[in-house]
Amino acid sequence: MDDRPSRGGATGIPAAILALLGGIFHLIGVAGGAVMLAGDDDLGRALLTFLLHVVVAAVLITGGVGLILAKPFGRVCTIAGAVLALLLYVSVLVLGALGVYFLGLADRTLPLGYLALLCLPAVVTLVLASLRPTARWVTSGWS
């Protein structure tokens, strides 16, 4: 039996996959923001939607690739991207409750279930990327 501690691939790799999937999800939001820019009467809301999705997608994808490569920046970017995503989802909820709608929301319906569903992978990504085995993964790498 091998008594050495795990190098963290069991947490680092799933965190990387979740970060990449989250980044792809936000790339879809980038496309939606671009469509809004082309046809929405509220340019500010459309631009905000587009830019927020671009930032979150870029940070999550950078983090996911970095984690796959077992680089320390990947862990930092993944944690930052998951936190940004959670802040974005919570801000949609809070601002929507105050009557300010963005990220594609245009009416008074707040999709609480949808937002909770969005938060779940972001929370799991954050937890996995924050764990000590993932820190070991980015320092010991594949070898």
Automatic annotation (TrEMBL):
The transmembrane residues are: 12-38, 50-70, 82-106, 112-131
Q: Which domain of life is it from?
A: Bacteria
Which terms are listed as keywords in the entry? Answer: Membrane, Transmembrane, Transmembrane helix
Know the name of this protein?
Uncharacterized protein
